[in-house]
Amino acid sequence: MQNTFRIIDEDGIHARPATALVNTATKFKGTEAYAEAKGKKVTLKSILGVLSLGLEAGDTLSLITEGSEEAEALNALTEVMIKEGLGEIHE
User: Fold this and answer.
1) Domain named HPr: which ranges (predicted)?
2) What is the pLDDT of residue 88?
3) What is the DSSP track for the chain?
4) What does the pLDDT look like over 53-79, one tens digit per residue?
5) What is the pTM of this model?
6) Residue 91 above 90 pLDDT?
7) What is the rounded distance in angstroms from the CA atom of residue 75 to the CA atom of residue 20?
8) 73 neighbors 25 (Cβ within 8 angstroms)
9) CATH code: domain of residue 76
10) Domain limits for position 9
């Protein structure tokens, strides 16, 4: 499953929101979660991986989940993106 976002936080994805995403992804043991941007795909269970994407305002980010709880995981990650003011769903 996948959702794509446009980054709207003027600071992009920095340490605090990246930590919120990693903590959320890690809660779902039977599910792999990935962030994909700028032609690079990293696990969402690694803070360094997420930060290595260097996401800035206006960039597009796809969150991808695979596994037994993929729908729940994607919903939780989408909630973090929206509640934290990081991004909006990009069709």
Assistant:
1) 1-89
2) 96
3) -EEEEEE--TT-S-HHHHHHHHHHHHT-TTEEEEEEETTEEEETT-HHHHHHT---TT-EEEEEEEETTHHHHHHHHHHHHHHTT-EEE--
4) 999 999 999 999 999 999 999 999 999
5) 0.94
6) no
7) 14
8) yes
9) 3.30.1340.10
10) 2-89
Length of the chain as a residue count: 91
Does residue 90 have an active-site annotation? no
Amino acid making up residue 62: S
Q: Are strands 60-67 and 87-89 parallel, antiparallel or unpaired?
A: unpaired
Contact 12, 57 (CB under 8 A): yes
Tokens 């936080």 belong to residue: 9
Query: How many domains is the chain built from?
Result: 1
List, edge to edge, every strand of the sheet that includes 87-89: 40-43, 31-37, 60-67, 2-7, 87-89
Active-site annotation holder among 14, 51, 57, 84: 14
